[in-house]
Each structure stands twice: as structure tokens, then as C-alpha cells.
Write a structure and sequence with these properties.
With 273 residues, chain A is an alpha/beta fold. In chain A, 41% of the residues lie in helices and 17% in strands. Chain A has an 8-stranded mixed beta sheet, sandwiched between helices.
């Protein structure tokens, strides 16, 4: 619906809703603005919501060379600078939460409230190996192997059982998609852009009203990582969606939306008991 | 601000807010409408919120004889019947959640969304003994002993450390209050009204959109009880406020409000991924 | 079966078993050597086990004036000094674990392995209030009120349901016992002896092989306290008995014994993978 | 050290220790008798321990065609039948625990005590996809991709950080090993042998003294699976090794050994409180 350019690359974004606190939504690594389609009626009920595809995602331009997170932080900074709001609330999930953390450290004066879902303050040694594995499989070019290596691990055992038909359809859609060399190349770059991410020390600079959303069955960014966030971000609020895996917005959309919108729409004055 | 009569007894209630989904808030056993004072700006921002004192609570009339939960379910039924809304959302915490469960089974057609915080579907053998202990101490008439027996257990260790000055002020207020025979008599009746509560079998009749809020440090109605609720109420959503004890609205008001208001303000259509 | 004197007071202890690693067992506050009767066949199968009543417990002498933990640490030091072993393993539960921590800091050269069950490194502000409540009720002299205030909270909801007949028998035994002024006076002193306990800083001096046993349903010394221990005692091992409350040795004797004996009987050389 | 034949295939096993309760140890899928080398001094201190390589593992014979779990249950049955003990205790981890469950249902009269570490009663839809992914990568023949896909997920984030040097050495050893076609073919068959495993209904037939060992950071067979086991096996004991991933024997050998040996060496008579 709209676009801007960052370092010569086209960035796609969408704005939905007429009034209310503006809320920027940042995608996980394999997501795009399209992933949020069914959330828009709720997101835009009492809020202006801004969706955006990072570079190498969705309808934004593909990159050709490797980069790190600072590229996407720049994308986000440019987006928020062009929006007509003094401050916005920002919700990032996983990769999006990592970019949100780095933006919040850099430009805290532009953020009203920060929501970090399934997010870590660093790429741990362990997660780096997981990402290396994804990329080693991507390099074989075999879409099915890539699907099986990257997608099931994102969901919980319980979701797989409850939503078997949906997962099967998803498999049918994603295997051909993951068989495209251009797609795999984008995913390799996106994954590699997280390799050296480490804000363990700097995340503590954040003093914004912050909500941390963890999921009990998140096997990719497990609760231990969100506990690290909570211990470092002073005054942060820390909730868990029980039974959900890493893709919390799909596993329990109602709890996810309730938390994101409920926290965004709190008044600025803290509730003093 | 308003009152009605139930079985000849005066019931006090308040309405705040101009528009939006109506939300009825049901107190925990030792709470009253006054407990929610600092929450009203948030509660009434996008919603009409109805607060009510159960009989033997706050500004509602004292009882003289013993009763069980059905009395308070009747109070709630009468309240909702006189409100000009086809449906309301209901949030009950602890004792209030127990009344909400029984009302939801009885009058599901009047509820839009149900939120159960720190709530169980029964008074377990264990909790009955805890309540018997409270009442045994109440019968000594010693306010300080009653305070020490009933209040600290409601909060988490971490809250006690973070909010020591607040807890000390509360102790200063509550010990004289708990030294009044009329107050102790009301509390004895309220506690006893839960003795035979057991909706273990019937809670499964609920098919409303339901959010269950559990707290990791709730030593009075521990997460095992909320897991029971979640397993029995089909399709219920189940989140945990980490680090909070039983009095979740005081320990983490922002997370509490975000969940309650966020869930209340979701659209009726489920989000279909 | 044996006794010694500490500061003029008689201390009762028992030794069971013929051979194997010696293991000293330290009681929780309301326990005594008699509490371990049914554990002796397992404890003494491959080990020499030493049971002891702290002063004001079981068959040891009653005190007349108030004291703090250092008294019981002295009892333990005297006991271990008179035993014919260069080193012993020490298992303390709750109050006993607190004494064990202080002894381990003072005399690490005498301990082979340390096991801390349901133990904290300090009396938190919260737990101090709980203890104050116990003592306020004790001072009423009403055995039933004291029983209801102190005993149910020690057990999990699940145990109460599984072992209702046992709990009822225990209530029948303990209410008359807790109605004796001398018993209540001992319990008041024992409880007060923990008021100022704070080894938060010093517990980190322990570098012994240490096993921390936590219980998921421990409402008195909740897992957050054992996490503190684990973070402070470098290299400590940290396990949870699921479903058990504070009285882990009664709620799940098999898991408790397996952990205590299994850890005690490991060889000195660490297992190098 | 010893061998027998099952359906014409050679099975390798070892016996260590002189006396005490006999204990059969069953490997996880990528393990072998060699994996337990450093555990033998502790295992054999007070016990006779029997290690065995399943077919397609370690020094047992390779298979050439696909099979299911019943093959390995047959191996175990044959092994126990040839041992000179009326009963043995059995500890199985992951794949080994699955075989143990099926054997325990089939031949309960031969088992004294059962220990299930990091084990499920079924291959969930989710886990089947994970296994399919492993095999899809194995079929590429790329040892590094297979290593990165299968090994990191077995360990916790914390272990990776604490034991980085060990993980690096392991990577150096395993990548060449996983580059051998014969090894990958065995691993493919072993993984496929679990595809249709489902003892969800039958596991409840087990009434042996059973200890379930779960690990808080097990991302492969998460605690939800062990909760299923615990709910189905009446009277089972359920403990958690905190901070450990799926490979619990490597992540916390002391806690692992303490639990396995401590539970094995309990007397037959239950501890009656």
C-alpha cells in the first residue's frame, strides 16, 4: 500500500486504522506483512497499525549481499521518521523483537511502549548453530528438507495436533516456496544477519514501559532468554502464553492480540496502587 | 454511586466510562469497589466498567447469617439483569472468579467474554483447611494475628521486597480494620461461603470465549488449579503473569489491565489464521 | 540412642547403618528424629545415617530463652566433631538446610557432599511475616488455630487429596500436641531463631558438591528461593520434585530418598563427559 | 565384551560391577555403549550394570532393511532372558525409554524398577516431522548439515555456553562420522523405526515403581510429554533436572546418576509415612 526507500532499496509497508495509539508491528524472520492479514480487524479497531516488510521479506526489495541487523534497524528508523507521530508503540516478534530492541536503545524518544514477543537479547551460541543448520540445508536447495528443518520447530507439539490440517496446507504451500532459489537466498541472508547480534549488555539501557511475552513451549527462543530480558530491562512486565510455541501469534491469536493491544492502550500514567 | 436490593439487602455498585464493551469486575474476598480506584482511568478509557461490592463487602450490606456462593451469584444475576446491555464481559478475581464461573454456567447468554484471574473451579480440601485456619484466627478477635495469617500469603516474596513501604502502610491500615468484630464477622461468613464450592464437573459446560490468568507465585490458588480450569473449559486461553502472587491486580497492574482490557476488547469473530 | 551436651543442654541423636558414606540428616522446624523412622531402612542400606534433634526439637532439651541459628549451628558442629569421620555428607530440609548452609560456610572441610531440600539462603521479608503470624497464633494458645495456620501450608493441594486419611490422623495427633504450652513455646523460639537469617551474600562461599532439591508446589519456600541458591552456589545441581509441597520427604518419599542417597553415594571424582 | 544373536543379528553388550541390584541401561538414538564410559565407575559402585547397543547402534550389527521398535524390544527381551537375574531395573533415555516402555508392558514380571529419562509414550505428529527432517537431511549425505540439524537441538542453550570447547570437539568428531553413508543409513533406519510408535493408551498398563526424569530445557521431548507419562503411569514419580536439555546424562551427569542409582537402590518395600 505504501513504500519508501532505504539505502536505495524499496521498503513495503501498510497502514490500517483511523485513530488511536499508533502501533508498529515487526515480523519474525519468515513472516511478512501478509502474515498479519487476519489480525488487521482487531489491530485497527482502536489503533492505527503499521505493518512493514523488512528488506528480503515479503514485498520489500531483495538484497544481493549479506548484511547484519543494523540494516533493518535503519529500515525501521526511516519508517518511524516518516510517520506523522511523535511516538509510536512497537511490537516485535522474534527477529522483529531483536530489531525493536536495537531501535529502542538507539531512539528511545520515539517509542511510547515496547512489546517483545518470543525475543532474545542476543543470538546465543546455540541459536547460531541452529541458524547455521538452516542455512546448510538451504544451500542444498531442497525445499522439503528446508521446510522440515525450519518450520516444525517453530510450533508446539500441541498445536501440531490441534491444527494438523492447517499445518498440512502450510506444508503444501511452503515446500514449493522454499524450493525457489531466490527465496532461499533471502532466507540465508536474513538468518545470517542475526549471527553476531548481542545486546546482552546494552538491552539494560531500555527504560521504556516494556512487555515481554514468552511462550511455555517455545523451543527456539526458550523462556530462559525472556527471563534474561526481564532481568535486564528494569520494570519490564513478563507474561507467558501457556501451551504456545515460538509462533505465538498463530498458536494463540486471541491471547497474543489481547496482550499486544491491551498493553499498547494503557494510559501513560502508571497505575499506582 | 448506585444501589439495588437483593433479597432485601442493599448492594452497592458503580459504573464508570461512557462507551465501549461493558465489563463487570468482581472482587476477591477481601476486596471492595474501593480496591479498583486507581484502575478506573484505564478501565474506563475504552470501556464501560461496572464495579460491585458483594454482600458483606465494602459498601454493600452486611449479612447476619451464614450463606453460600449462591447468594452472591444471585447478586450478580440481579445486577446484570438491571444493566441495559444485552451482554457484558465479566472479569472475576479469586472469589469473584468463582462467582463468575457459577453465573456463566447459569446464564451464559448474558456473557460476551469471561476472564478468570487467580481462580479455581472448587474449594480443594487443602484450601478449605486454609480458610478454616483464617476463621479460627478471626474468632480470637486479634486483628494482628488475622492480618499476619491472611495477608502475606496473598503476595509474592518478590512483591514484599519491592513494595515494602506499601506493605507496611497496608499493615498499619488493616490491623485496626481487622480488629473490628463486625469486619471479622463479615470475613468469617465470606470465607465460609466458599467451603462447599465445587464446580469441577460443571465448569466444563462453559463454552464462552474465556481467558484464564494464572500467576507463577500464587501460593493460595496455585497454577495447578488454573490448569484444571484450562483443561475443562474447551478453547480457553491460558496465560501466566510471571513473578506475581495471588493479588495479581496489585502486583502487576499493567499486565493485569492489559490482559483484562485487551481480551475484553477483541472482536467477536475469532481470528482465523 | 545417644546424646551429648552443647552449652549445657542435652542433644539427642541416633546412628543407623553399619558401613558406607556417613550422612547427617537435619530436620525441618516441626520435625524430629522420629519423623524419619520409616526412612531408616533405606537410609541405612548402603550408608551410615546420623539423625539429630536440634535444641527445642524432639528428644533434645528445651531452651528457655530466645536464640538464633548460631545455637543450632553450634549443635551441628559439636555433633560432627564427635563423630569418627573425617568428612560427612549433610542433608538438611528447610530449617535444617539453613543450618547446613551456615555450617558449610564455617566448616567446609568437614563436608563431603551437601544436599539442601526446600531451603532458602535467607528469611525473606515475606517469610518473616509468615513466621510472625505463626507465633501470633501460637501466643493465643489455641492448638487448633495453630495447626490450621502452620500445617496445611506445608503440603500441596494434591497431597491433601491423595492422603486425606493420613492428614486427618495427623490433625488428630497434632492438635492436642499443639495445645501444650511447652510445645508452643519451643515452636515460638524455633520460629523466631530464623528471623534474622540472611546468608544471601555468604552462601556463595560454598564450593562443595551441592544438590538443591526444590518442589514445584512448595508455597512456603518457593522455587524462586532455590533458584537464588543455585545461582549463588557455583556448580550446584538443581532438581525439582514435581507435584510436591514443602514437606517433600512425606509427599514423595521415593523421589526424596533417591535424590538424597543417590547424590550422597556418587564417587568423589566428578563424571567427566 | 559379550554378544548374542537376535534374528540372526549380532548384539553387543557389556556387564560391569560385581554385586548389587542389576540395572540395564538403554541408549538414546545416537548413543552407544561407548557413551556411558565415564559413568561406569559410578554405575558399578553398588550395582551390576548392563549396557547394550541396539541393532544399528555402536558395536551391534547394522541392519539393511527398515524396521520398527518391535525389533529393539525383541533385542531387549532376549538380553534380559539370558541374564541370570529374576528381575532387573531398566533405565532408558529417549529412544531407549521408548523401548523400555514397550518391554515393561510386555514383560512386567522381569522388571524391578523402571526409569524413563527424556522419554515420551508416542512419536507425536510434531516429533515425526522433526525426524522426517533429520532423514531428509541425512539423504543429502552432507555430514555437516546433518550434524547441525540433529545435534544442537539435543542440548540446552546454557550447556552450549558452559561447554563450548566440548561441543566444538564433538563437532569435529561427529561431522566426519556423519559423513559416512553407512552411519547415515543406520541413523535413517533408527529414526524411521520410531515413526509409528504410539503407546499413549498402553503405557497406563504399567504398574511398576517408575521414575520419570524430565528436563526443563528439553526441546525435543519437552516436559509436556513427561507429564503425559506421569498422568498415565499410576503412582509414578516425576522429577525435573533444571537447566538441562534432552541429553541429560551429559548436561548434568551428577543429577542424572544420583536419580538413576538412587531410585534403583531403594528397597522393595515402599516408604510408608
Amino acid at each position: 500500500m505504501a513504500e519508501f526507500f532505504y539505502e536505495g532499496k524499496r521498503v513495503y509497508y501498510e497502514i490500517h486504522g483511523d485513530s488511536g495509539e499508533p502501533l508498529v508491528i515487526l515480523n519474525g524472520i519468515m513472516m511478512s506483512t501478509a502474515s498479519w492479514k487476519s489480525f488487521i480487524p482487531n489491530f485497527s479497531r482502536n489503533n492505527i497499525v503499521i505493518l512493514v516488510d523488512f528488506l528480503d521479506q515479503g514485498q520489500s526489495e531483495r538484497m544481493t549481499e549479506s548484511y547484519d541487523h543494523s540494516l533493518q534497524v535503519g529500515v525501521l528508523e526511516t519508517l518511524i521518521d516518516l510517520l506523522p507521530y511523535e511516538k509510536v508503540s512497537v511490537m516485535g516478534i522474534s527477529y522483529g523483537g531483536e530489531i525493536a530492541i536495537q531501535y529502542a536503545v538507539k531512539r528511545p524518544e520515539r517509542i511510547r511502549r515496547l512489546i517483545l514477543a518470543n525475543t532474545a537479547c542476543r543470538t546465543s551460541d546455540w541459536l547460531r548453530k541452529i541458524g547455521d543448520g538452516w542455512n546448510a540445508v538451504a544451500k542444498t536447495g531442497i525445499g522439503e528438507a528446508y521446510y522440515l528443518t525450519t518450520i516444525p520447530v517453530i510450533y508446539s507439539t500441541g498445536f501440531y495436533e490441534r491444527e494438523k490440517a492447517w499445518m498440512d496446507r502450510r506444508e503444501g504451500t511452503l515446500i514449493p516456496y522454499f524450493s525457489r532459489p531466490d527465496v532461499l537466498e533471502s532466507l540465508i541472508r536474513l538468518t545470517d544477519s542475526s549471527r553476531d547480534y548481542d545486546y546482552t549488555d546494552r538491552v539494560g539501557e531500555i527504560s521504556l514501559p516494556t512487555l515481554i511475552i514468552s511462550c511455555s513451549e517455545d523451543g527456539l527462543v526458550p523462556p530462559t532468554e525472556q527471563i534474561m530480558l526481564h532481568e535486564r530491562i528494569k520494570g519490564s512486565h513478563y507474561v507467558t502464553i501457556n501451551g504456545s510455541g515460538h509462533a505465538s501469534m498463530y498458536e494463540d491469536p486471541a491471547s497474543f492480540c489481547a496482550l499486544v493491544l491491551g498493553f499498547t492502550n494503557l494510559l501513560d500514567d502508571p497505575i499506582t496502587i
